[in-house]
Design a protein that fits this description.
Strand content: 5-15%
Radius of gyration: 39 Å
Strand order of the largest sheet: 8-9-10-5-11-12
CATH architecture of the largest domain: Up-down Bundle
Largest sheet: 6 strands, mixed
Helix content: 55-70%
Length: about 675
Amino acid sequence: MMGGPRGLLEQETSKPRSVGKTLRRLVKYFRPYWIVLLSVLVLMVANAWTSVITPVLMGQAVNCYFTPAVTDEAAAALGVPAPSDQPSTTGQPETQVAAAASACTFGALPPEATTGDYIAALGRLVLFMIAIYVVGAITGGLMFYLMGWAGQHVLRALQLDVFDHLQRLSLGYYSKHESGDLMSRITNDVSTIQQAISFGLVQVLSGALLIVWIAWAMLQMNWAYALLSLTVVPAMVVATVWFSSQARKAFRKSRKEIGNVNAELQESISGVRESQAFSREDANIESFRASNAANRDANLRAVAYTSALAPSLEALGYVAIAIVAGVGAILLLNGSTLGGSVITLGLIITFIGFVQRFNQPIAQIAVMWTNIQSAVAGAERIFDLLDVQPDIVEKFDAIPMPVIKGRVVFDNVTAEYKRGEPVLKNVSLLAEPGEMIAIVGPTGAGKTTLVNLLPRFYDITAGKVTIDGMDVRDVKLPSLREQIGVVLQDTFLFSDTVINNIRYGRPEATETEVIAAAKLARAHDFIEKLPDGYNTVLGERGSGLSQGQRQLLSIARAAIANPHLLILDEATSSVDTRTERQIQAALDELLAGRTSFVIAHRLSTVRHADQVLVMVNGEIVERGKHAELLEQQGVYYDLYMSQFKRQEQVTQATAPRPNGHGPSLTPAPA
């Protein structure tokens, strides 16, 4: 493939991104849980209220119960010097008293109040503040729990959609994309979304609400003092925007690199036999070291921006507190007003609390926003995958495929994997029901492509492929494929029991039927010798079995599915001559009455064929029976002399002698 899978991944990652579009698509997954989200919103408002009211109550505690007295009577009740005996520092003591008293939630105490009255009122205020803290803790906990609950359900639905989509994508997609990168999308990318949904999204929304609420409360109390307190906000916004944009780029790069690491790891593990056979271990280690280093550098860059943002905002927050405290103290000591309102000590305390709470959600949003950026990058990759349309799709009016009788026609078929580069060129053939069609030719001649068109793993570019007169493009795919059995050269077995691997294509098959299929495939004897017989759990891809044994299980799997049309892609190429004879006998029984297409490099298979198709460069250059093609002394004759003839000599040399005393060691005459 041009550029390779890694090149495609790199192009995909560099595409322009639409954050709004991605978030809107995520919202659709939350719609079934709108009641839960509404509850989260209510809890979010309640939690924000507890954060806003606390500084107000602290300011009231100072104004109402720590510095309430300015009259001689109140001073006598508290045992402090009377204001008339003190030099005026404010110039407007009575105005400040009125301003302080008017804001007392529990009411200002009368001048004759005793010290005990002040202590009791202060105690009630403290208890009320404790209750506020408890409510804040409860609402915060419930808010995160409910959001996490909804998030887990959304992630489950998203993962199911991705897995379902992967199962339906055409084979052509998998030939262009590495399985490690696809696995990364359903694991790592979903994990980043989980973190953002469970914590990041709630913190960002609640932080934004708190910022707006605090700003409004400050403006309501003293608009001029509020604007002065918020002078550092523009600098915070600039820092947040810049760090967030840099972090988003870094996290997107990180997502790409972790996909490369997974792809490299999966490829190295799957190809460990080849690596050791060709002594490529050191080269693989070096390649993985490079991929891992790129992933490390990308993550370090992302972490650097994320880590630098929080202390930068914290420093700006301290500047804001210094402005509030410094300016407030000067105004208080000089008895000045600001914005037409009196500055009291309690107001200064309240604004300091507001600024602290104001800075906290800004830093929180900034840090969590980088996580959300990472999640958006992961979501974009997931939705990009979900947007991939399968190459093979059913027509809207497709009909179920009737029971296949087996008449197959290729009518001037042309097929391409890449536009303008045909793999099959005007191929025509006719297979009558029950016939065995053998396909031979050099590597790359188009043999596998030809048989892949029958179950419609790929679509043709021109021409028509019909089975029993019905175009394969006009029928429903499941009804077509469930009637076609496939035995491949590269047998894939699942990490499951032997019995489940055999009945994979027909899960309802009974144990008796499985054993019968295994006996037909000559696999029963070696299965019985396994530790747990048919209940033995196989390793990954059938590890622990020989290639020939895996092939026998694959034939048994095809047999139990009872297909009406059979495709064998060099089904006996991985077994020895003696095992081949057993398999050939099984295949003769399996193929009886079924139309079959056999890609074969074995003479024993070709000899029994009703038709032999010789393919070269995507074209059928010769066709006929084995003997007829030999008489023509064309391409098939050359192939026979160079390959099949030697097989025939070996087969005759190893065949049992008529007297039963062992194989003949004398080669058969040419």
